Amino acid sequence: MKKMNLLISIILTFFLAACAGNENTRSTGQTLDDAAITARVKNAIAVSQGLRDAASINVDTYRGVVSLAGFVNNAQEARAAGLAASRVNGVDRVVNNLQLKSSTPSTGE
Hints:
This protein is of the alpha+beta class and 109 residues long. It has four helices and three strands. It has a domain at 26-100: GMP Synthetase, Chain A, domain 3 (2-Layer Sandwich).
């Protein structure tokens, strides 16, 4: 019986260690926190800019740092999206990589 308890303890230790993060990876809890932050940021951008504009903005979160990418119509929209993201609870920093849409259509060459 003691050997069985020891074996179970060892197995549980390995499972718990697998869920822990280090300086290069996220723990399961951090991953879930980042997913929740991403959802709240997407919602905040949709509320501030409308669903149509928000759909063209990609949001990614890693350890509380939110990255915005995609295309917007003007610099004001880019600033507004960054401001909306920065006001979300849990956001430590916003990296705003939003680009302005080109006013001339591409020729495909």
